[in-house]
Amino acid sequence: MEDISEFLKKREAEGSLRRLNAASWRRNGKICVNGREYIDFSSNDYLGLANHPRLIERAKKALDEFGASSSASRLLSGDLELHHCLEEAVAGFKGKEASLVFNSGYQANVGIFACLCTKDDCVFSDRLNHASVVDGILLSNAKVFRYNHNDMGHLESLMRSQRDKYRRALVVTETIFSMDGDRASLKELVELKKRYDCGIMVDEAHATGIFGPGGSGVVEEEGLTEEIDLIMGTFGKALGGFGAYIAGSGEMVEYLINKCRSFIYSTSLPPSVIASDLAGIEMVREEGSRRDKVLELARCFREALKKKGCAVKGCSQIVPVIVGENLKAVKAAKVLQSKGYWVLPIRPPTVPRGEARLRFSLSADHESGVLERLAYDVSEALV
Ligand SMILES: *Cc1c(COP(=O)(O)O)cnc(C)c1O
User: Is residue 241 lining ligand 1, measured as CB closer than 6 Å?
Assistant: First the structure.
C-alpha cells in the first residue's frame, strides 16, 4: 500500500494537493465561499439552467408525487414511467432510436466498454479522453491504443498496424474536450472508422446543450447522427440536472439493460432528478438563445485574452489559459480569486505535466463587461 502521508507531502510540495471548497450557495453565475461572493467560472452550468424555476418546479412536483428516492435499481422496483419518458425524450433529442439513462456520466462510461469489448478487441482512444473513459476501457480488458490528441495521422497509423490483430475495434472520443475546450475532428474520425471497420462512440458531456441547431451536440451540428453508433452525454452540465445517458439502437439499449453492471447494480436516479432532467431537455430545445449567448461570450473572451497575449486554447464555452507550472497556476488563481472571480487551477494528473492552466467555464449568466475586465485581470495575474 502507498504511504499515505508521503503521498500527501509530495502532492503539497509539487503544488498539486487538492482540497475541497465548500460553497454556502451558488446560483445565477455566482458562488459564495467563506462568506465572500464570487463570479463563478468553475461551474459546468453553461446555460444557467440549474436554478431555473421550471426545473425546480418539476423536481418539487415529482418529490411530492413520488417521494425522495426510487428505492431500488431499475430492474427491481426502481423503474418509473418517468424514467421511460426521459429516455424517449433523450432519444428524440439525439435523433437515435433509443436511449438508456445512467446515474452519472462516470457510471455510464465505466460500465459501457466492458459490454462492447473483451480482451480480443481493441479501443482507439484520444489521449485527452475523460478519466471515466480511461477507467471503463481498463475494466473491459480490451487492448487500448491512445492516439495523440486529435491527431488523425497518428490514429490512422495505429489503425493500419493494429486493427487486423483484433476481432472488433471501437473508436472513442469526446466531442468537446473538457480540459482543452476544443473539438474532435468528427468527420475524419467517421471516415477512418469506416475505412478500418470500427465502431464509434462519442462523449458529448460538454457539447450537449451548446452545439447543434437543436442544441443536441456536435454530432447533430455535423450531421453525423447516423454514423455514430453510440452517443453518450450527461445531464449535470449544460442541462442543469444530474445523471447521464447513452443513445443508440433499440437493440443496443436492450443489450445494455441486460449486461451493463454499472446500470444494473445501482439504485436508479430519484424521480425529482429525472423530472428536472426532462425539463432541462425541453428548455434547451425551446431556448436556443441561451447557447447562442454563451458561445458569443466565449468568442469575445477568447479574443480579448489573445489580444492581451495569453496562451488560450479551444473553441467552445470552455476557455483554458495555459500557464505551465503548477505553482504559477495556483498563484494566478489566488490573485483572481482575490479580485472576486471563482477560478481554479487545473493541474496534473487532470492535465499533462507542464500544462497546468486556468480553466474558465462560461455561462449564459455571465456579462460581457465582466469578461472584458477579467481578460485584463488574467493577463495581469500572469506577469
Ligand atoms: C463530466 C464528464 C463525465 C462524467 O459525468 P458525471 O455525470 O459528472 O459523472 C464524463 N465524461 C466527460 C467528458 C465529462 O466531462
Answer: no
**What is residue 16's predicted lDDT score, i.e. its pLDDT?**
78
Whole-number Å distance between alpha carbons of 90 and 94:
6
The band of 373, judged by pLDDT with boundaries at 50, 70 and 90, is very high
Distance (angstroms) between ligand 1 centre and the Cα of 339 equals 29
Q: What integer pLDDT is reported at residue 15 of this predicted model?
A: 76
Which residue has the least CA distance to atom 10 on ligand 1?
105
The active-site residue, picked from 178, 262, 272, 361, is 178
Q: Phi and psi dihedrals of 163, rounded to 5?
A: -50, -45
Q: What is the pTM of this model?
A: 0.96
> Cα of 120 to ligand 1 centre, how many Å?
27
Among 86, 8, 145, smallest CA distance to 268 is for 86
- Cα–ligand 1 centroid distance for 258 (angstroms): 23
Residues 210 and 28: their CA atoms lie apart, in Å, by: 18
Q: Is 193 a catalytic residue?
A: no
Taking residues 295-305, report their average pLDDT.
Answer: 98
Query: Which residue among 52, 130, 206, 293 is the active-site one?
Result: 206
Q: Three-state SS for 321?
A: strand
Q: In this model, does residue 2 exceed pLDDT 80? A: no
Q: Out of 94, 237, 293, 366, pick the active-site residue.
A: 237
> Which 8-state DSSP code applies to residue 350?
T
Quick check: 347 and 326 in contact, CB under 8 A?
Answer: yes
H-assigned helices in the chain: 4-14, 53-66, 81-94, 105-116, 131-140, 152-162, 186-195, 218-221, 250-259, 261-264, 271-286, 288-307, 326-338, 368-381
Give yes or no: 206 in active site: yes
At 226, list the grid cell.
447516423
Q: What sign for the dihedral angle of Cα 247, 253, 259, 261? A: positive
| pLDDT number for residue 349 | 83
Question: Does ligand 1 lie within 6 Å of residue 169's CB atom?
Answer: no
Separation of alpha carbons 19 and 345, rounded Å: 12
- Angle at the Cα of 246 from the Cα atoms of 44 and 268, rounded to 5 degrees: 80
